[in-house]
Amino acid sequence: MLTLQEPLMIVTDLDGSLLDHHTYSWQPATEWLTRLKEHHIPLVICSSKTAAEIVPLQQELGFGGSPFISENGAVVHYGDAQSALTGQLSPQDYRAICHTLLNLRQRDGFKFIGFADVSEKEIAEWTGLAPALAARAKMREASESLIWRDSREQFDLFRVRLNEAELELVQGGRFWHVMSKGSGKGAALRWLLEHAPSSASPRSRRPITIGLGDGPNDAPMLDSVDYAVVIRGYSKNPVLLERADKQHIYRSTARGPEGWVEGLNHFITPS
């Protein structure tokens, strides 16, 4: 097992992982979060949430100023509060992506509804978030979240059309996410480790990474870390990893933050 004295870095998804899928509570993970802070182990959030959602949560968790990956890997943030740097891996920004989606809907008649189409109130109803938090979810930089309301045949054509526009579709816990090709969580994590090693881990230029996630969109990130925790989730589709080192993969029996704790207990000796 690993120890807290080693140069670790924890890379975590939020919804359904560190945060409860229904209540968004992280309290069951309090003891482990305290241990990480006491041993100066960085907690890198890697989520479909926006930067506007992640920054206040970092402060709440006690990891303010840490690097993080937002919008499923479309954007990477690193550096302290005074010299924050942003690496937008997506060559297409939010406005451009929404423009393409509007054109595709008008041309092919696709039936879907995105965050750009609705108010904060509707997003709050979809997610269970408070209206103020739902407003932060609309502050997008390089990806769009949507609900598909059309046939399977149209969905397959939609993927084709997105591919032609250099976009891809990623499945999250609640929504489908449209973003530029090649800008997923795995690519973002590799970019962060390469470009901001001192910010990512103060102890080592290449930390030992432990990733935790519950959805199919987490698979690229979980394939890019040294140790992977697949938290039991609610998605109908399984989290399929391509890595061959099965001994470095753990699948939790518990969901949400309880599963998050279970995964860290499996790989790290807490004492």
Automatic annotation (TrEMBL):
Listed Pfam families: Hydrolase_3 (PF08282), S6PP (PF05116)
GO CC annotations on file: cytosol
Keyword Calcium tagged: no
GO biological process, one term: mannosylglycerate biosynthetic process
Any GO molecular function: mannosyl-3-phosphoglycerate phosphatase activity
Keyword terms, alphabetized: Hydrolase, Magnesium, Metal-binding
Domain (Sucrose phosphatase-like): residue spans on this chain: 172-267
Name this protein carries in UniProt: Mannosyl-3-phosphoglycerate phosphatase-related protein
Lineage, opening ranks: Bacteria, Pseudomonadati, Pseudomonadota, Gammaproteobacteria, Enterobacterales
